[in-house]
Design a protein that fits this description.
Blueprint: H1 3-32, H2 36-52, E1 70-73, E2 84-90, E3 94-101, E4 120-124, E5 129-134, E6 138-144, E7 149-151, E8 162-165
Antiparallel strand pairs: 1-3, 2-3, 2-4, 4-7, 5-6, 5-8
The structure holds calcium ion.
Length: 166
């Protein structure tokens, strides 16, 4: 076996173990959702794990903005800052919510206390995103085109559990 082959194998192994770790953390988060202090710690851990994922897995990309990976949008602010995809608690971009910086993913929105909360979204991230009905990008997938602002359909209301570039 050549050195290059060994390197490729090692890289693949690392990638698989990071993905497995990420999924373990997300599952643990679902379990631990009801314990806020532990939840806050695990949320930080999960974000750190996401940052470790290679670019191909939908984590940090070259077009990521310089700001924080997740920002809070206060109630009353309907604008989504450039470079972010924004999730709002209520229809018509009301009720506040969260912005996720371009290139970043959230495998479980419960990490930021926003599981099954989203009623509208605005994508000003510069790239296409998708939100998913279940954690870990599972369940029904819904496309969020760049520069669109959308009230979700009634049957999609308060369903979003994860999102990532797609
Ligand atoms: Ca859900």
């Amino acid at each position: 076996m050549t050195t290059a082959g060994a390197d490729t194998l090692a890289a693949t192994g690392l990638q698989l173990s990071v993905v497995a770790l990420s999924q373990c953390v997300a599952l643990a988060l679902i379990t631990i959702e009801r314990f806020p202090p532990v939840k806050a710690y695990l949320a930080a851990l999960a974000l750190a794990t996401t940052a470790l994922l290679p670019a191909g897995a939908g984590a940090a990309h070259a077009d990521a903005v310089a700001g924080p990976p997740v920002i809070t949008i206060p109630a009353g602010q309907t604008r989504c800052p450039d470079g972010y995809v924004c999730l709002f608690r209520d229809y018509e971009f009301q009720g506040g919510g969260y912005g996720v910086a371009a290139g970043h993913s959230i495998g479980f929105l419960g990490q930021v206390g926003f599981n099954d909360q989203m009623s509208s979204w605005a994508n000003d991230s510069g790239r296409r995103y998708c939100w998913y009905v279940d954690a870990n990008y599972a369940g029904d997938r819904h496309v969020m085109e760049n520069r669109y602002r959308v009230n979700v359909l009634p049957q999609e209301n308060d369903q979003a559990s994860s999102l990532r570039p797609c």
